Amino acid sequence: MTHPGKQENGYGATLVKDAESLGGSLGTAMDHALAAATETGTLAAEKLGSLAGNARSLGEEGLATFSKTIERNPLAAIAIAAGAGLIAGLLCRRTDR
Question: Which pTM does this prediction carry?
Answer without folding.
Answer: 0.44
